[in-house]
Design goal:
Helix content is about 65%, strand content about 10%. The chain contains 3 helices and 2 strands, in the order ββααα. A two-stranded antiparallel ribbon has the order 1-2. A hairpin with a 5-residue loop joins β1 and β2. α1 packs antiparallel against α2 (about 60-95) and α2 (about 60-95) packs antiparallel against α3 (about 100-115). The protein is elongated and about 55 Å long.
Length: about 120
């Protein structure tokens, strides 16, 4: 089944496209925030490397914990961005196509992310 839908980007650009869907979860999209997600992951990786180096160097535990908090925050914010992108694009499309399995998959993913 082919389904046409429209997305409105933050800058107001309107994009209309179609997807071929089966009853399996086969939604593919160009996510709007991929570059931003990759940049945030790179930043989180940099923070984590810094934490490792701090531990190796014997830096005060308080400073290590503060840096770990930055890593957690970076990861949580990246997860929020991925979730927002998923809801705005993949999930909306899945619901329009009657793919309720995608909703269940999202619930499971949120449960895992929020542990």
């Amino acid at each position: 089944m082919e389904h046409e839908h429209t997305h409105v980007r933050e800058d107001g650009t309107v994009v209309t496209h179609t997807h071929e869907h089966t009853h399996e979860h086969a939604h593919t999209h160009t996510h709007q925030n991929t570059k931003l997600v990759l940049d945030r992951l790179a930043r989180a990786t940099g923070h984590l490397k810094k934490v490792r180096q701090m531990v190796e160097d014997g830096v005060d535990c308080s400073e290590v914990l503060i840096q770990l908090a930055a890593v957690k925050s970076a990861i949580n914010n990246t997860g929020k961005l991925i979730l927002k992108d998923h809801i705005e694009h993949c999930l909306v499309d899945a619901i329009e196509c009657g793919d309720m399995a995608a909703v269940e998959e999202l619930k499971k993913a949120i449960d895992q992310f929020m542990k």
